[in-house]
Amino acid sequence: MSNPIRLVIFGRQGAGKGTQCAHLVERYGVAHISTGDMLRGAVASGTEMGLLAKKVMDAGDLVSDEIINGIVRERLAQDDATTVGFVLDGYPRTIGQAEVLTEILGDRPLHAVVDLDVPLEEVTARMKARGRADDTEDGIARRLELYEQETRPVLNWFAERGLLVTVDGFEDEDVVTSRLEEAVNAAIEAPCC
Ligand code: AMP
Q1: Concatenated DSSP letters for 52-105?
Q2: Domain covering 5-32+85-189 assigned CATH 3.40.50.740 in the classification
Q3: Helix 48-58 vs helix 65-76: angle between axes, to the nearest 10 degrees?
Q4: How far apart are CA 118 and CA 147, in angstroms?
Q5: Average pLDDT over the chain, rounded to whole?
Q6: What is the 3-state secondary structure (H, E, C) of 167-193?
Q7: Strand, coil or helix: 36
Q8: In which region does residue 17 sit, left (phi positive, over 0), alpha (psi from -120 to 50) or beta (all else)?
Q9: Catalytic residue among 73, 128, 130, 132
């Protein structure tokens, strides 16, 4: 069996991360771990944590590091994550989360952190067209603002550690997919991993 591949994908909400993650799953067999999907799942099944998260998500705010780190820690301990690897989507979103992730991974570090780069005007238009429950005008604006405030520093944190690869995501889906594959292949083949 081939070695597990460990990736994180970044991008503003609406940058096409979900779509590109599906391609990564198909191409590399990794588990797609989306904290947004996991939280929406908890909301849908009406768990206590889901009820708590719902309010925060509806306001476009971030769920506490404590809750989200706990969810991710559990998920990354599952068999698929340790054997085939994973692509993390929507996590880490704060420096605190990035530090905990590094601690969780220990001696099985990330191969690459990819930033799927799509301009602000384009993602705003895409999200308005998408019409998800939390895609209200205020919700969109709040999430994009938070992305700059909280998540941009996380990208810089990974860049300082030599892990960040930026992929231009403002192109047709298949073009973006092949750019992404190129970036991931280069990271997997790099001598450090
Ligand atoms: P997403 O689908 O990634 O846009 O996530 C939807 C919502 O879930 C976000 O607006 C946050 O409220 C919450 N969320 C998802 N991932 C995280 C995270 N890593 N840290 C805090 N909140 C999160």
Answers
A1: HHHHHHHTT-PPPHHHHHHHHHHHHTSHHHHHTEEEEES---SHHHHHHHHHHH
A2: no
A3: 120
A4: 13
A5: 93
A6: EECCCCHHHHHHHHHHHHHHHHHCCCC
A7: helix
A8: alpha
A9: 132
* Residue 108 designated active-site: no
Strand partners, 166: 115
Place of tokens 């192109």: 171
Asked if the model's pLDDT at residue 1 lies above 70, the reply is no
Could you tell me the pLDDT band of residue 130, with boundaries at 50, 70 and 90?
A: confident
Distance CA 69, CA 65 (A): 6
Residue 145 buriedness (CB in 10 A; 0-12 / 13-18 / 19+)? exposed
Q: Is 55 a catalytic residue?
A: no
pLDDT at residue 9 in the model: 97
What spacing in Å lies between the alpha carbon of 189 and ligand 1's midpoint? Answer: 31
Q: What pTM did the predictor assign? A: 0.91
Give domain limits for the chain: 5-32+85-189
